[in-house]
């Protein structure tokens, strides 16, 4: 999946807002909304730099970018909410559940078994409601 | 690039030895050799589990696996020698320099600018001699 | 705010107890109480070394010390309960909500956006009941 | 306590399964079960490498191995569920509650007071039901 | 010291360039130069986001911002080059050597004695040439 | 090995000084000396809290304490100088080289292969000169 919503003519904020919507979906919008009453400027930075600047760069497709992010957040092991958002984002940009599971399992090599286990259990939570949704529930 | 050197009929050790050679090249063999007089069994585990087991799994190609590893080691920021080995490994399995640079830059978002800067300077070191070699020096 | 409750003539334990009360308030006393049945000696060390020794040193005022602590705990990202205690402590020693929010936002640069986001959401929790209290609720 | 359940003639998986049962008890089996629907191969790796390979090595007894694991997980501070499993495992292989408390307290020196505090509160949770059980409740 | 070089009418890049010069001095320019042949866009982001956006925000003076950064980089313990740059930056924006030493010592409480020791030895290196220069050597 | 040099009648500083000498030997004294011109009070804290307080506690022998410290510093992976001091300390309090190697290898499970590899190479450096000394060189 390419960064189709990234238009160099748009402002960074506008570009970031569309990239966030494409990648993180509703979960990203919830984060932005949650910042409104404590640090609205931080929501702007979040849209502008990670999404408007980095994710919109053409040199790497979104699939590769989400592989990198899921790997890093699993390895760091101290950002469970963001890992879940990006596991969902991985599905949004075309990674399969099995591919996401492979990425997380591989982190046992680089960050230890506990980091990988906690990553897998995060994935299980993210995958679960979707399974329900897919089955019509 | 697929895991062409991974044969389910081989022992994990044999499979791992070939996967290590394919992915990490000479740098991987140096690590194994350096372990010989202090912890030879650990060299065996390194060949068997990360390379014989994980990298040989069919669900994710080596390009994707190296994206994940470069991202994680950049983000963790405490394993410079291994990061350099895997930046070289990334080139071995088909990532371009620009793609590797993109992955590392993206880590500024998830692990901060210092982690990304140190990753970029590691990449610069890895890329340098190769540039020299390519120019015939 | 200076370390007015630190008296060199007092024992480290006594000095630490008063410094803890001044800085962390009720939250600090709860931590000490929670240690009573598992590791009472650790409560003593906690009062003596961080509070009796370090926070009572004259070379840096409590405002600066809490800036440092809030920054470090946000960046480490693996000690949410202690971060909340020190966000409240920051308010106790004279930092404003906006200043605390600035410190945490800045950590996006050094530890990544997830660490800053989780720090901001911790601040939101700490600020919330106080808002309620201030409004008379 | 020695690794009495480790038999070199068994497969790594079989050896690991018995070592896991001996060390982690029911908690270990729950982890394996929880992986069944998301990453069953990872359960196999977990049994084979950490338990079948590492914990079954003769050079260090299980008591020493659990001291090392409890220390590391307390210091890392980002794997609370696994720390709790290994605090229980420490009791299983003969560490006393006081010894486990000493190990965790010592981590204040190497990873800071928050890491040690969170480790002590994890221990308190693990010790609690057992106290209840011991008293016949 | 206030952010006197931050002018809202300038571009983020221009503002960031001046803020970097004011805060990090020559060391900051060296980092930017070192990025020129590997990731020039990252130099732009570094000037724009941390310096043009964050350090130029009016809600916290540069002295407080450097306290936060020195604390965080000491605690993280995996970014020695950046810690040294910011110890020098601390001196540039008005922190005394003794204040910087206090901040780093305090990190023993939150990230352990090794992190504080390595921070103090980094400070010793930064302070050393300046001492020499001041004495006319 | 028990804490034979710890006498409750001595001051914490005196007790710590003797414990440091017993455990870390010359390397510990070098650290204290290196702090003299930058943060002499921190040398006092280092002697008093980790050594005078923690290592002198009777509930865990020095062998067990060094297992915990070597494990934690290997897993954290960001304090190579201190890890080397404590690998030497492990030998001082009666751990064998093989036992130290086992502890470090085990950390591959909890903190990943790079952390374990870097720990093993640190051990190799510490073991090397001693080997030379033992052979009369």
Could you describe the 3D structure shown?
The structure is a homohexamer. Chain A is about 75% helix and about 0% strand. Chain A folds into two domains: about 60 residues, no CATH class; about 80 residues, AhpD-like (Up-down Bundle), CATH 1.20.1290. The first copy, chain A, has about 140 residues and is mostly helical. The C terminus of chain A is likely disordered. In chain A, α1 packs across α3, α5 packs across α7 and α6 runs antiparallel to α7. The two termini of chain A are about 30 Å apart. Chains A and E meet through α3 of A and α3 of E. Chains A, B, C, D, E, F: This is Carboxymuconolactone decarboxylase family protein. Chains A, B, C, D, E, F: It comes from Ancylobacter radicis.
Essential attributes:
homohexamer, AhpD-like, 137 residues, mainly alpha
At a glance:
By secondary structure, chain A is mainly alpha-helical. In chain A, 76% of the residues lie in helices and 0% in strands. Chains in contact: A-B, A-C, A-D, A-E, A-F, B-C, B-D, B-E, B-F, C-D, C-E, C-F, D-E, D-F, E-F.
């Amino acid at each position: 999946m390419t960064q189709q919503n990234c238009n160099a003519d748009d402002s960074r904020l506008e570009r970031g807002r569309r990239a966030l919507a494409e990648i993180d979906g509703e979960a990203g919008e919830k984060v932005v909304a949650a910042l409104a009453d404590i640090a609205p400027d931080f929501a702007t930075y979040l849209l502008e730099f990670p999404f408007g600047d980095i994710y919109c760069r053409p040199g790497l497709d979104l699939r590769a970018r989400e592989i990198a992010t899921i790997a890093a957040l699993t390895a760091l092991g101290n950002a469970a909410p963001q890992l879940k958002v990006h596991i969902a984002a991985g599905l949004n940009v075309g990674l399969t559940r099995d591919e996401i599971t492979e990425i997380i399992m591989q982190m046992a090599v680089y960050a230890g078994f506990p980091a990988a286990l906690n990553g897998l259990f995060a994935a299980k939570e993210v995958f679960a409601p979707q399974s329900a949704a897919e089955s019509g529930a």
